[in-house]
Amino acid sequence: MNKISFKHVLQVLLPFCLGIGIIGWIYRDLDFDEVWDVLKTQTKWSWMIASLFFGLLSHIIRGLRWVLALEPLGVKPKKSNAIYAIFTSYAVNLVVPRLGEFTRCGVLSKYDGISFSKSFGSVVAERMVDSFCAILILVLAVILQGGYFINFFNETGFVIPYEDLLKSKFFYLSLLGIIGVVGVLFFFVRKLALMGRIKRILINMWEGMIALVKMKNGGLYILFSVLIWSCYFLHFYLTFFCFPFTSDLGPLAGLALFIVGSFAVVVPTPNGAGPWHFVVITLMTIYGISTANAGIFALIVHTIQSFLVVLLGTYGFVALPLSNKKLLNNEDNTSFKS
To answer: Is 330 part of a structural domain of the chain?
Structure first.
């Protein structure tokens, strides 16, 4: 195995093994017959379908928002291309976390001729906006559900004596998360360095980032951002009504669980697998849900929502060349003539 292929294998295996290791530890005592019984006899699938609808809608709106962000740069990709690029990027992130951001920029570069670095700059700006939204939601959740968050921090080991730090299970999960984030940042830097012409790339990225300032339809961009995060919340919260043991949890509990789960997916595992389960289960038990039922909820919901990501990614991957068939044919004819 050569050096390049070994590196690629590690990029796939390390996040996967990290996620599987954490999930294996969390579910080491789970009775999977009980999970199957919940799926067969207790799950209200109409609520799950409603949840998946908002998951799909969030992807579509994100694609439309991306088109809006690119307009100040003097480029306008096909809306379908931007949406399909979002579909494929989330699916790619299941295999190699954070690689999807590069993938979707590559899609617009291939099918719409948009500068990779400019579109990547718009993605960086987009992530900054999303981070700001997530922090606002976190602050709101802490204000409204402060007592539960204090218990959550105590339970996960945030508020512990220094001498007991190494005994905290959350300390090790946090450490793995920090290492993973540093690894992802290093991976980004390496990818950019390999593209060559660093100065021009950085200029293009900067243009993509400041495009938001030049945007004429800033109000629409804000509206899209609010709708995206509203869809994210409903994508998660509606799953409470799928199960009898979570249906009584109110929207404020949903908000708290949603935001801690949103921050947990920063850890570079496939779709946050492992860390997401851990924080959701821990906070659910603080809200009075048994550990067994919280574990069942997290396992079923995360698995089904990850399946939606795979399904949409597959659709986007197939739809992109089909919807751009004329463009690809013209490129082939040009190549043949030359």
So the answer is: no
**What's the pLDDT score for residue 183?**
63
Which residues are CB-contacts of 223 (< 8 A; sequence separation ≥ 6)? none
pLDDT-derived band of residue 243, with 50, 70 and 90 as boundaries? very high
Convert the chain into a string of H (helix), E (strand) and C (coil): CCHHHHHHHHHHHHHHHHHHHHHHHHCCCCCHHHHHHHHHHHCCHHHHHHHHHHHHHHHHHHHHHHHHHHHHHCCCCCHHHHHHHHHHHHHHHHHCCCHHHHHHHHHHHHHHCCCHHHHHHHHHHHHHHHHHHHHHHHHHHHHHCHHHHHHHHHHHCCCCCHHHHHHCHHHHHHHHHHHHHHHHHHHHHHHHHHCCCHHHHHHHHHHHHHHHHHCCCHHHHHHHHHHHHHHHHHHHHHHHHHCCCCCCCCHHHHHHHHHHHHHHCCCCCHHHCCHHHHHHHHHHHHCCCCHHHHHHHHHHHHHHHHHHHHHHHHHHHHHHHHHCHHHHHHHHHHHHHC
| pLDDT tops 80 at residue 195 | no
Q: Tell which wins on pLDDT, 124 or 68.
A: 68
Structure confidence at residue 336 as a pLDDT band (50, 70, 90):
very low
Q: Residue 157 — left, alpha, or beta (φ > 0 → left; ψ -120 to 50 → alpha)?
A: left
Note whether residue 187 is domain-resident: yes
What is the tally of structural domains in the chain? Answer: 1
What integer pLDDT is reported at residue 337 of this predicted model?
46
The answer to whether residue 199 sits within a structural domain is: yes
Q: In this predicted structure, which of 22-31, 44-53, 130-139, 167-176 has the lowest mean pLDDT?
A: 167-176
Q: Kindly tell me if the per-residue pLDDT of 320 is higher than 70.
A: yes
The whole domain housing 223 covers 44-321
Positive or negative: CA dihedral 77, 83, 89, 92: negative
